[in-house]
Design a protein that fits this description.
The protein has eleven helices and 36 strands. It is α+β, with helices and mostly antiparallel strands. The strands form seven sheets. A ten-stranded mixed beta sheet has the order 13-14-11-2-3-9-5-6-32-33. Strands 18, 19, 20, 21, 22, 23 and 24 form a seven-stranded mixed beta sheet that branches. The chain has a five-stranded mixed beta sheet with strand order 26-28-17-16-31, covered by helices on one side. Strand 29 and strand 30 form a beta hairpin. Helix 2 packs antiparallel against helix 3, helix 5 packs parallel to helix 6 and helix 6 packs across helix 8. Bound molecules: 2-acetamido-2-deoxy-beta-D-glucopyranose (NAG) (4 copies).
């Protein structure tokens, strides 16, 4: 068990004690089920945890689970003593009031916080009378994104104790047929591997994971506290039809388009690499390694350019050159010598990258601009809006800009906005031993363009999600959802028009029968539409300003409320038995740095115990991880704030 020594600067009071995690004799999670159903890549997951208070006195019982960042929570319920308490999704501002009131009354307020790369933590608690039980039930939904030729469904299990009746049930139904399915992740290792059964028919797959209590203590990150890890279901669907799958139900359709039988398009790629002083050490080392790998992967008919920047710009060559052996060898030598120094002039560097691509028009090719930076612009033009407007003018929708933000010192929202404004995406690169692999992995996603200028056309369709895409890459997927006008399938004609190498191609397979499945499991086509629409409106809101921004915001909020999605615009207010604290759950934005919201790994359980034992009136209102071993907390004592330091020994 982890030992932690806590020093509290509370009126000079010094405390030292040992971590206690939930003890089965106090409260017992006697059943923990995760049930995930995936239909047409849309996953709905329900986590049900049943807990008994074994004590002779009332006990505050916590429910704490981790869900994928990409998912929206859509339902939360508690059952206590035959009574049901439903979470209610409200506009964030409205819920904020309740939140503030709760905090000002000295009550704790629930949080959804960002954890690591892919997960968010949902946490709430409720007071349960002596020898009574509580059932927590959380539902979340997500559209699985195809990356590098596969979909991944991540199930995180960390019930905090070994659980007698622990089950994960996964059911996948794909009309197109399942090509392969694999189970990966930390929970598929060691003795736990025996607890998995995976079966797979043509269109359906089932994965069951039923570990015994003993098995639950044996995985790489499992121990006396039970399991702590992921089960990752990896699969892909069959694709015999170039037009892809179109499914419809109750007036809505969703189209998955991912042809792979196309020729690759040669690309023109410019890498703009930050070498400012803050890249010092491992970051610059990993960047060099990744760049050299990436250069090795360029094809001979690709053209490329390489710029490094700090307060000045350094060209490897002023113009794009062909990726032949001689040029690549020379570029790799340049990459090996990249040194960290100076400030960060993002504006000048990105504009120069755009100039190089603009100066190199090549018919039948796909151009890509990739920016890697780890900080905010500190020299040259530093006004963020001015940079964004300069970059937009330089690129003029001619090629996508991808922004990779290295670490947490970057203003991620700035990078995300700039990428979205230029048909690209932003990605965070986490400072870790595998950062070079993350960089390389991102590059691989865009390494093989198959189509450019893709227009998805739906005659007889309305309320469509995004239909124009600058590039389509091998291994990815274009997804469009919408409504069918008057639900009339006769007049609904889907078509895809795009450029492949030097030809204009039209996909309009008249044989494509739009699968009309009115089965219960397909009632979620409308939810797929809502999910995609909300995600895209949130992206749009970020890019826009003025009344357009407001409209996107309003519509995203309206749909979030209608479909009961907890998004960055809404919050879930957890209703509880009378007299109890109100928890308000907010979804964090990706741009938010973890400093503000990082959960107190392993200590979350410790803190309530400290204050309950020693100072019943102490309450943690916010936590901040300043450094891995030093946790900085604000604690509210009868209305006053004190600071508490936590030095934990791992
Ligand atoms: C899982 O959820 C699906 C869909 O809600 C339901 O049909 C199924 O019975 C559930 N399975 C289990 C084991 O609870
Ligand atoms: C695209 O990916 C598929 C599957 O990974 C592969 O078989 C195919 O060769 C790739 N196409 C090109 C042009 O690289
Ligand atoms: C999509 O592209 C087509 C053809 O390039 C164009 O006519 C249309 O206006 C574009 N639609 C949007 C919404 O940008
Ligand atoms: C459509 O179906 C007909 C008959 O089944 C077949 O002959 C034809 O080749 C198909 N067309 C396409 C584009 O697949």
């Amino acid at each position: 068990m982890e030992r932690a020594v806590v020093q509290i600067t509370l009126f000079g009071l010094l405390l030292a004690l040992v971590t206690t995690l939930p003890n089965k004799d106090d409260w017992d999670i006697y059943s923990f089920h995760i049930n995930s159903t995936v239909t047409s890549r849309y996953a709905t997951t329900v986590i049900t945890s049943r807990v008994a208070n074994r004590m002779d006195e009332p006990k505050e019982i916590e429910f704490q689970v981790r869900i994928p960042k990409n998912a929206f929570i859509s339902k939360f319920r508690m059952f206590i003593d035959g009574q049901e308490y439903d979470g209610v999704v409200k506009a964030k501002e409205q819920a904020q009031q309740q939140y503030t009131e709760a905090v000002s009354r000295g009550q704790s307020a629930g949080l959804v916080s960002s954890v690591g790369r892919t997960l968010e933590e949902f946490k709430t608690s409720v007071n349960v009378a002596a020898h009574k039980k509580v059932t927590f039930e959380l539902t979340y939904e997500e559209l699985l994104k195809r990356k590098l030729g596969k979909y991944e469904l991540q199930i995180h299990a960390r019930p905090m104790q070994p659980v007698k009746d622990f089950k994960v049930d996964i059911y996948i139904h794909e009309q197109a047929g399942i090509n392969f399915i694999d189970v990966k992740g930390g929970l598929s290792t060691k003795a736990l591997a025996n607890a998995i059964t995976s079966t797979h028919a043509d269109k359906q797959a089932w994965v069951y994971f039923y570990p015994t209590e003993d098995q639950q203590k044996t995985c790489d990150s499992c121990g006396d506290q039970g399991m702590n890890g992921d089960l990752v279901i990896v699969y892909d669907v069959k694709r015999d039809n170039s037009m892809g799958d179109i499914k419809k139900s109750a007036g809505y359709f969703v189209h998955h388009f991912a042809p792979s039988n196309l020729q690759r398009i040669p690309k023109n790629v410019v890498f703009v690499i930050d070498q400012s002083g803050s890249m010092h050490g491992r970051k610059i080392q990993q960047t060099r390694i990744a760049l050299i790998h990436i250069l090795n992967d360029l094809a001979e008919d690709d053209y490329f350019g390489l710029i490094t920047f700090d307060s000045s710009i350094f060209h490897w060559k002023r113009e794009l050159v062909q990726a032949n052996k001689e040029n690549l060898d020379s570029a790799k030598k340049f990459a090996e010598r990249i040194q960290d120094r100076g400030a960060t002039d993002i504006n000048q560097a990105v504009l120069e990258g755009a100039r190089m691509l603009n100066a190199h028009p090549r018919e039948g090719s796909a151009s890509i601009l990739i920016l890697l930076t780890d900080g905010d612009p500190t020299t040259g033009v530093t006004n963020l809006e001015k940079i964004q407007s300069n970059v937009r003018k330089a690129i003029r929708d001619k090629f996508p800009l991808y922004c990779l933000g290295f670490g947490f010192d970057v203003n991620f929202e700035f990078l995300e906005k700039m990428a979205l404004q230029n048909n690209g995406v932003a990605r965070r690169i986490y400072e870790d031993s595998d950062a070079d692999l993350q960089l390389k992995g991102f590059y691989e996603e865009v390494a093989t363009p198959l189509l450019t200028d893709v227009s998805m056309i739906y005659v007889g369709g309305t309320n469509l999600t995004q239909t124009n895409f600058s590039h389509y890459y091998n291994g990815s997927e274009i997804v469009v959802a919408g409504q069918i006008t008057d639900n009339n399938i006769e007049t609904f004609i889907p078509q895809v028009v795009a450029i492949s190498t030097k030809r204009r191609v039209v996909f309009s397979d008249t044989n494509t029968t739009v699968q009309s499945t009115e089965a219960v499991s397909d009632s979620n086509i409308q939810r797929v539409w809502a999910y995609l629409t909300v995600k895209q409106l949130l992206d749009k809101e970020l890019q826009l300003s003025g009344p357009e921004k407001e409209n996107a915001n309003k519509e995203a909020l309206r749909l979030s409320l209608k479909y009961s999605f907890v998004t960055p615009l809404t919050s879930m207010v957890v209703t509880k038995p009378p007299g109890e604290n109100t928890d308000v759950l907010h979804k964090p934005k990706e741009g938010e740095t973890p400093q503000a919201r990082q959960p107190l790994h392993g200590h979350a359980m410790l803190l309530p115990d400290i204050h309950r034992r020693s100072h019943p009136r102490l309450r943690v209102i916010s936590g901040q991880a300043a450094a891995p071993r030093k946790t900085h907390l604000h604690v509210l004592v009868s209305g006053g704030i004190i600071t508490m330091y936590d030095y934990s020994l791992k």
